[in-house]
Amino acid sequence: MKHISILVPQGALLGSIEGPRQVFSEVNTMIEDRLGKGPMFKVQLVAFKKDVPVYDGLYTINPDALTKDISKTDLIIIPALAGDVAKAVQENEEFIPWIIRQHHAGAEVASLCIGAFLLAATGLVNGKKVATHWMAADAFRKAFPEVELVEDKILTDENGIYSSGGAFSYLNLLLYLIEKYAGRELSVLAAKTFQIDIDRKSQSPFMMFQGQKSHEDETIHRAQDFIEKNVQEKISVDQLATMLALSRRNLERRFKKATSNTVVEYIQRVRVEAAKQNLESSRDNVNEVMYKVGYTDSKAFRSTFKRITGLSPVQYRNKYNRLAMSEN
CB atoms < 10 A from the CB of 85, how many? Predict the structure, then answer.
């Protein structure tokens, strides 16, 4: 029987604690009812103290066990944190040595959504890939530059250290773990029972590009503002460099350092975000949208759009535009 320890950090989101508990418990029921076997998972809520306040103190959880009483576990699940993430990590730093010790003893570790911050604070994912909520990407990169953030991924698997993307995408990670531990058949059954879209790989269709503005390079802020206010214009790196009285090389270096994107990548992401907003809210066809965001080559537009969002422009419009849905 696999021992699953779902951590109960102070200030955690209740849903990402109860969700894994419910899913793994239901799989136990499926195994008993369908296969006539005993439960596969021993699921416990684990904390370093009793009566833990979660979700800004709205709820209190009395855990099944305390970390000091668990000598060995097989899987540690770190739920999503809420509020000020740096403060939440600090409030829960007592978990860190326990997680490290358990991992060195053979336990696997999985973080859900913004729980990736607590996972990264252990140092176990330095030099490894990690996913988190796309809205927290900039803050994560700044806090943990030694970790490779994969912003678009639903989940990562780094030899027994797992992470999931934003919000309820943790359900896809749970299905992945169920398949690994209990087989594909039970994973599919769990997906049907909880109505989860199985095998979803990317959170790109849900991402909204907001521009990386949390830096102090005012010259790069000017470049970003110019790009965002001139979506329809064909903007070149040389044009920006001349406007800002910088060499092209210096502009590229500073822009990448400030935003984590090259200038060309940033222009593409701004244009695609404008296209997404148009596709969501208007009756414009794809070519009309393409011209409005500065593209003249339909192949290049469709290719860039799909690379960034994971969907073609038509698929995106059909998914998010109510008018388009009513026409289908």
Answer: 21
Contact 7, 49 (CB under 8 A): no
- Which structural domain, as residue segments, surrounds residue 85? 2-206
Q: What predicted TM-score, i.e. pTM, was given to this entire model? A: 0.71
Cα–Cα distance for residue pair 325/311, rounded to 1 Å: 16
Cα separation, 24 vs 77, in Å, equals 12
Per-residue tokens: 262: 């090259």
CATH number of residue 50's parent domain: 3.40.50.880
Is 212 contained in some domain?
no
Tell me whether residue 166 is in a domain.
yes
Burial of residue 260 (number of CB atoms within 10 Å: 0-12, 13-18, 19+): middle
Query: H helices then E strands: how many in the chain?
Result: 15, 11
Q: What would the pLDDT profile of 150-176 be if each residue is shown by its tens digit?
A: 887 888 999 999 999 887 889 999 999
Per-residue pLDDT tens over the stretch 50-68: 999 888 788 899 999 999 9
First-to-last C-alpha distance (Å) of the chain: 48
Please state, in angstroms and rounded to a whole number, the distance separating the CA atoms of residues 17 and 30: 21
Instruction: Let me know whether 188 and 249 are in one domain.
Output: no
Question: Residue 7: in which H helix or E strand, if any?
Answer: strand 2-7
Which residues lie below 8 Å from residue 56, measured CB to CB, with a gap of 6+? 11, 82, 83
Cβ–Cβ under 8 Å, residues 223 and 264: no
Q: Would you say residue 183 lies in a domain? A: yes
Q: Is residue 211 part of a domain?
A: no
